[in-house]
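For the sake of transparency, this paper describes our internal protein records without simplification. An entry from our holdings is shown next, in its original layout:
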Amino acid sequence: MSALATALREIHFSIPTRALQEAFTPPDATWRKAPISLDEQIMAKVLRPRVLSDCNLMGGAYCIVSLEGLNPTYVDTYSMVYEIPGDRTQYRDIMSVLSIGYLPFAGAYSDMNPGIGMVAPQSITSLSSAAQRVADSVGGVPPISNAYVELIGARSVLVRDQARVTSSYILRCMLANDEQLNNLNPRYWIPFSKLCVLAVQAYIYNELYIRMDLMYLAGGQELGAFKDYVLSLSEANLNYQTYLLEKWQVSAFMNDTNAYQRFIKLQINPAV
């Protein structure tokens, strides 16, 4: 069982099979062509081009990517382009970049022996950490980075740094979802399935509304319940857009554990 399999199951339970067959069966299907399953038609015409694409735009996965060891291409004295290998982004495209900074304390600790570096790890206690935050509250905010970053490709970023002090950048970004949505928590399969149902209903209305009039003119027969069902889907596209922005965007953010936990921590303790 997977998110996509759950969505297809919900589509079949929520939409009459006859309506699905009329909307998704190719009009020129003949015995000469290899048969394509109804589920694959739904995936190819609705779920992949629309739903999965919108899910990447609305959500994704928060990730911190190290640019250490990469050789950039210099555009000018202060601008450079980094081509990020696929293994550093789990072979997913970068949907948006949030910020770029210099090597964090965690990187310095992992590369040094205990007691070596700016601060000895053994000297960090809850009391000293609290005292440091009190002192920092009356001090200026130290510059974490003066660099500006811009996404210019699927895994290419342009960095402008007027005073480059290190080659060890870390990039905070949002990655696209896994192609099979394996990163989607099972608790959010039902909201995702509802989004897919609305998208399929919108497709059925757009596909069959004009075709029904042509069928009526050609055959001269009233379509009855079939026509009533298709006309009832006139608001499906609006409902899809509303659900995507108001409901699914929240679910996608909560599904991203790293981003959601960071959001909660910043509410409780901004110093973390």
Notes: The two ends are 37 Å apart (CA to CA). Confidence is low (pLDDT under 50) at residues 105-122. The longest strand covers residues 94-102.
